Amino acid sequence: MAAPCPEDPSLERHFKGHRDAVTCVDFSLNTKLLASGSMDSCLMVWHMKPQSRAYRFTGHKDAVTCVNFSPSGHLLASGSRDKTVRIWVPNVKGESTVFRAHTATVRSVHFCSDGQSLVTASDDKTVKVWSTHRQKFLFSLSQHINWVRCAKFSPDGRLIVSASDDKTVKLWDKNSRECVHSYCEHGGFVTYVDFHPSGTCIAAAGMDNTVKVWDVRTHRLLQHYQLHSAAVNALSFHPSGNYLITASSDSTLKILDLMEGRLLYTLHGHQGPATTVAFSRTGEYFASGGSDEQVMVWKSNFDVDYGEVLKVQKPPATLASSAGNLTVSILEQRLTLTEDKLKQCLENQQLIMQRTTP
């Protein structure tokens, strides 16, 4: 038996202000601000400090599908069904610059770790890279044959990963602009993908209710989770690299322990599909959004010491990568299981699932 966690995750704050389904959430670097986008075409920036007023940014002409704070926290990117990308200054004025190059809904926006570049994904089947400061489109990556739902830079900015309705996850080299590898093991549309903080593996969520973790160096499947009873819409790695949180249309959030390869928590908060989830940059909090128009902020609690270590240790990247490498080596050890042992593990997991479902 593993030692019990200090405390279960707890619901801290509850933000109401959107008038339609919440599609995306992201914390600023210092965790003082939380941005959310919605089908109501608005972007909200919430202050984590109680009693502070939220900012409502209007500019997009249709549903806001994605948000991402720049690494410094001075800029906020958003994408929309109106085919545009906007870069906002997250203050009371809420001024924004419009980027146009996509010809269909923009599904995903993500800043590079140095803040210089932005990667976007769209229903026009392309992934595009932009220069943030020159505010111009640089190049397209176009090998997907269906909508691209998500695209992210690796922590070192050298790779880009993308997830598509063509049921593939593609790994790209940013400099050569070549597709390095296609992961084709998904049984349905791939809704979301992200890099592990160490940069050595990726996790992808699918409409087939699964989450898969691959090593980007060997391209081996490291872990496969089938824990949700409906599509998995989003996921987020804890900065320590030890945990992964998922949001699903079955209305739950699930926290996975990647070291042990098991489910830690199932959280019930949203009425209807949970559409989005994201850890804060220290991992102390995570936020979720749903089709119930709610934005919820939870205190993690399951890795209490980590936040404290982070405050002392600057920059946090060194800590994240060392913990990350440890995770990967453990994942690799798990992978050396024989076929029979793996089958046994899956059967055991199913038995546990049957026991826990009422």
UniProtKB/TrEMBL annotation:
Subcellular locations according to the entry: Cytoplasm, Cytoskeleton, Cilium basal body; Cytoplasm, Cytoskeleton, Microtubule organizing center, Centrosome, Centriole; Cytoplasm, Cytoskeleton, Spindle pole
InterPro entries: WD40/YVTN_repeat-like_dom_sf, WD40_PAC1, WD40_repeat_CS, WD40_repeat_dom_sf, WD40_rpt, WDR55/POC1
Record's keyword terms, sorted: Cell projection, Cilium biogenesis/degradation, Coiled coil, Cytoplasm, Cytoskeleton, Repeat, WD repeat
Keyword Repeat listed: yes
CDD domains to which the protein is assigned, alphabetical: WD40
Top-level taxonomic group: Eukaryota
Entry's Gene Ontology BP terms: cilium assembly
GO CC, any one term: centrosome
Repeat (WD) residue spans along the chain: 15-56, 57-88, 99-140, 141-182, 183-224, 225-266, 267-299
Subunit structure: Interacts with POC1B.
Family as reported in the entry's similarity comment: Belongs to the WD repeat POC1 family.
Stored PANTHER family: POC1 CENTRIOLAR PROTEIN HOMOLOG A, WD REPEAT-CONTAINING PROTEIN 55
Biological role stated in the UniProt entry: Plays an important role in centriole assembly and/or stability and ciliogenesis. Involved in early steps of centriole duplication, as well as in the later steps of centriole length control. Acts in concert with POC1B to ensure centriole integrity and proper mitotic spindle formation.
Protein name as annotated: POC1 centriolar protein homolog A
Species annotation: Propithecus coquereli
